[in-house]
Amino acid sequence: MIDVNRQGEVWVFAEQHDGKLEETSIELMSKARHLADTLKVRLAALLPGDEVRHLSTELIHYGADKVYLAEHPLLRTYQTNSYAKVILGLIGKHKPQIVLYGATAAGRDLAPRVASAAKAGLTADCTDLQIGTHKTAKDGEVHENLLFQIRPAFGGNIVATIINYDRWPQMATVREGVMPMPEPNPNHHGVIVTEAVSLAQDDLPIEILQEHKRAKKVDLKAARIIVAGGAGVGSKENFKLIWDLANCLGAAPAATRPAVDLGFIDHDHQVGQTGTTVRPSLYIAVGISGAIQHQAGMAQSQKIVAINNDPEAPILGIAHYKIVGDLNEVVPKMIRAIKEKGV
Ligand code: FAD
C-alpha cells in the first residue's frame, strides 16, 4: 500500500501512440493544472514510451511542471504488463497524491491494473474532478483536500461524488472530451526527469509481431457541425436523411445509442455517456428524445437545434431552436432550403 502523502504531486498519465499524444491526455492537463494549483503542489506528466522525449516539451507547454520520461523499446506499443510495471514503480518511488488517466481503451485497461496492484481506489469515467473537504459519517473525522471524483451513476440518473481518503494515490479515469482542450503556453517551464526502465521480453506475456490499426470512421470531437439521428428516424434507409442533411452542411453524422443498436449507423458515430462527448458549434438533433445519457455527450454544444414531433421531448428543453414536427417533412424542407439559398 502507498502512504498518504499530502505533499504528493498531481500526475497525468500522458498516453501516446506512435509518438503522438492522445487528445484526452492533453484535455486532462488543464483540469490537473487546476487541481495542482488548488493543492499548491506540482503537476507532473508520466510519459512511458519509446523515443518519445519530444513529447515532454509539448506536455510542459500544456502545463506540466515536470515530466517523468520512461523510455524503453518494450514500451513502444501499449501493453498492460509493461506499462503497469513501470507506472507502479514510479508511483512507489515518488508517491503522488493523485493519478489521472484518460478513459481511453488503454486508460481503462491500465488504471484498474495499477489500482489493484497498488491497493488504491479508482473511479472510472469521471465527468468532473474537484478538491474538497469531507467529514466521515462514522466518526466525524474531517479529511481536507480530497479529490472529489464526480461521475454519473445508476444509469445516469444521479451524479455521484466519490472520495477515497485512505487508499492513495487517489486515482480516476476521465471521459474523453469532457474537459476543454487547453491552449499550449510556450512560456511555461518545466523539468524532464529521465527514469531508468528495466524491462525484459520475459516480463511480458505477449510479443507483438505486427500491428494493424483500424481507422475511426468519423472524428466527432473535431466536428464543428453535427447532425445526429435517433430511433425516431425509423430505419437505416431513412437514416439517409441524416447523411443528406449532414452532407449539405459539411457536418459529421452522429447518432444515439438505439440508432446504433438498431444498425442505422456504426458505433463510431454514437454520442453520449457510452459514446463520444462532443461540443460542436451546432448540434442538430433529429428524432432524438434527449435522454440524460445522450445529453451527457452533447449538452455543451454551443447551439442546439432539435426536431421532434413530441412537444414534451426532453431534448426540446435544452434546445436553443425547437422544431416540433415530423422529421420526414422538416428535414427534406431544410435540405431544399439549404441547397437553394446556400449556407
Ligand atoms: P427514443 O428515446 O426512443 O426517442 C426517439 C424520439 O424520436 C422521441 O422523442 C420521438 O418523439 C421522436 N420521434 C419519433 N418519430 C418522429 C418523427 N417522425 N419526427 C420527429 N420526431 C420523432 N444513449 C445515447 O444516445 N448515447 C449513449 O451513449 C447512451 N449510453 C447509455 C448508457 C447507459 C448505462 C444507459 C442505461 C443508457 C444509455 N443510452 C445512451 C440510452 C438512453 O438512455 C436512451 O435510451 C437513448 O438516448 C434514447 O435514444 P433516442 O432518443 O434515439 O430514442
Automatic annotation (TrEMBL):
This protein's record includes keyword Flavoprotein: yes
SUPFAM superfamilies: Adenine nucleotide alpha hydrolases-like, DHS-like NAD/FAD-binding domain
Pfam families: ETF (PF01012), ETF_alpha (PF00766)
Cofactor: binding details: Binds 1 FAD per dimer.
Residues where FAD binds: 256-257, 270-274, 287-294, 308
Highest taxon in the source lineage: Bacteria
Keywords: Electron transport, FAD, Flavoprotein, Transport
Cofactor section: FAD
BP term (GO), one: fatty acid beta-oxidation using acyl-CoA dehydrogenase
InterPro entries the record matches: DHS-like_NAD/FAD-binding_dom (IPR029035), ETF_a/b_N (IPR014730), ETF_a/FixB (IPR001308), ETF_alpha_N (IPR033947), ETF_asu_C (IPR014731), ETF_asu_C_CS (IPR018206), Rossmann-like_a/b/a_fold (IPR014729)
Domain Electron transfer flavoprotein alpha/beta-subunit N-terminal: from-to ranges: 10-208
GO molecular function, a single term: flavin adenine dinucleotide binding
PANTHER family from the UniProt entry: ELECTRON TRANSFER FLAVOPROTEIN ALPHA, ELECTRON TRANSFER FLAVOPROTEIN SUBUNIT ALPHA, MITOCHONDRIAL
Family listed: Belongs to the ETF alpha-subunit/FixB family.
Descriptive protein name: Electron transfer flavoprotein subunit alpha/FixB family protein
Source organism of the structure: Anaerobaca lacustris
